[in-house]
Amino acid sequence: MLEGSNNQPPQPVSNNDPTESGKTVVIQPGSSVLRLGLATDTSPHCTPHVIARLNNRTVTSSRSKQKKSHDNGKSSSKAQQGALGEMESYLSQLVTSSGYWRPYTPPEQVGVYNSRVKPVRHTSTSNNWTDVKHRPKYITGKDALHIHPDEPYDIRWPFAHGQLNLGGGNISITSALQDVEDVWRAAVTHHLNITQQQISEYNAILLVSDITNRNIIKHYMDILLTELGFRSAVVVQESVMATFGLGVTSACVVDVGHEKCSVCCVEDGLSHRSTRITLKYGGSEVTQLFGLLLKRGNFPYKHCDTERITDKLLVQELKENFCHLDKDSYGVQSRDFVVTQHGQSTSQSYQINLSDEMLLAPLGLFYPLAFTPLPDIVYITQRPQASQPEDIFDQEYLMQTQSNRGRPSAVGGPGGDDGVNQDMETESIPDEESRDDIAASKTNSQSGLSADSRPGLDDAIIQSIESCATDDMRLRMYSCILLIGCGLNFRSAETMLQDKLRLKMPKDIQKRLDNIDFVRVAKDMDPGAVTWKGGAILAALDSIHECWIGRREWKEFGLKLLRERSLFVW
Q1: Hey, how many other C-beta atoms are within 10 angstroms of the C-beta on 176?
Q2: Hey, how many other C-beta atoms are within 10 angstroms of the C-beta on 150?
Q3: Cβ(307)–Cβ(288) under 8 Å?
């Protein structure tokens, strides 16, 4: 008989050793990078979270639409120019650690030199295009990024802004989920050497964003258990796993990724719903802004076009190597970089002068109007979700049942008081989530943030912490801020963020707060792999034993198992 028949509630799946780390695969899907590996691995395998599908409708390439990059300074909007002016004014008012005003270097000063730079050619190993002469139906990972533009393949990114990428309604959910399944299957086979016959011996831990549609999570479970064929699986939240990965119990988790910034307050393994905030911009927008600033300063690589994936990766590499948030670093600085083209046996080296461009680009995270274009809705908070027909005993059912029990009846309510007292108690004692929502609504009204707001990262952090229910919890959150993700991996980021928060946090908190402490990963560790590491730690804990959802019981009971066994409030 299958576990949990219709005559008894479902019980946790019984494996020989479901928490065996060597048989547990931890999967962290991102907008740009897919991280996965066995829980016993010291670090995850990283592969581009992308797929190229053969397009049989036409001979020419039909690439999926990307966000428009900045071609030149003239095409940027007035709002962006205003934001850049505000950022430059902010830099001119900064005081260095030595007590002097930080000098500002105008872009024209470096532009004159850069316009005269000529490339130096060197013989190098040629970067070959991906071989697609046999016309495979799809190609995933790094090879998908190196397909010649004239080949009939569509480049598709399954995730955007940390969520399933439906292309603004232009991609069906079935097609998007098929992309996810194919990318994950290829990654498990190629990087972990797990065949389709062996995968039924493994468990899976899936890390999802704090704000995720519950119906989409159900589809992810279908992929893991039904399509890929894992033995069992569990879904966990990224912010909670970040605290596991860095070994703290209470913190405000700030995760700056490729296309999103997420902020959430976590206490004792629980992500507080009212504090969850997602901003639809991240490291990708910093890269685009840096590309614009480079062009404004007469970037010597004249043929750079960030619409091309190869050039976009080049600008991203320059951003990672050159950009910073150090107010003590100023003036004109000389840098070198190399451009290697596919199919060519020579490379070109350039020398470039840079100044405040290196600081202005990451500073855009605090002035998001400098990022153009942005989605219509940038600021997202946790909202009530629609009831799922598959789970008849969900939160909506419980709320309706509680309300019905509290109503007066003609024959008298429980206790002989005609149900009046019970009804009053039901309305006057809100649960923890209701208290969180009340605190969040008050904070939202005071801060002026709404769905069409475009707050900076510092505004989102303060908004999240101020949504906590008590003053003591707010102080704890300000005292421990986790900075993770590759989007804010810049020198002196903590100092800049601390200055921004000090200027905007409430006065009463400033008087009681001794210091704002930031927790970051060690220098030799990937800041984007912290949450994955937390998932690997979770796999070794005994507490996960009762959370596994087996393949057979998932087919029988479905969605309600997620509500009963999830490590977060469903």
Answers
A1: 20
A2: 10
A3: no
Tokens of 138: 């799809």
Q: What is the rounded distance in angstroms from the CA atom of residue 560 to the CA atom of residue 570?
A: 10
| DSSP state letters, 498-567 | HHHHHHHS-HHHHHH-----EE---TTS-GGGHHHHHHHHHHTSGGGGGT-EEHHHHHHHTTHHHHHH-S
| Cis status, amide bond into 158, omega within 30 of 0 | no
Residues 461/263, Cβ–Cβ less than 8 Å: yes
8 Å CB contact between 239 and 264: yes
Supply the DSSP string of 552-565, one letter for each residue.
HHHHHHTTHHHHHH
> What pTM was estimated for this model as a whole?
0.85
- From the list 290, 264, 308, the residue with the least C-alpha distance to 162 is 264
Question: For residue 192, which amino acid is it?
Answer: L
Tell me the pLDDT of the chain (570 aa) as tens digits. 333 334 454 555 444 454 467 899 999 999 999 999 999 999 999 999 999 999 875 443 334 444 444 444 444 578 889 999 999 999 989 999 888 999 888 888 899 999 999 999 988 776 788 999 999 999 999 999 999 988 999 999 999 999 999 887 778 999 999 999 999 999 999 999 999 999 999 999 999 999 988 889 999 999 999 999 999 999 999 999 999 999 999 999 999 999 999 999 999 989 999 999 999 999 999 999 999 999 999 999 998 988 888 899 999 999 999 999 999 999 999 999 999 887 777 889 999 999 999 999 999 999 999 998 888 889 898 877 666 666 666 666 666 776 665 555 444 444 444 433 333 333 333 344 444 444 444 445 455 566 567 899 999 999 999 999 999 999 999 999 999 999 999 999 999 999 999 999 998 888 888 888 999 887 778 899 999 999 999 999 988 888 999 999 999 888 888 888 888 776
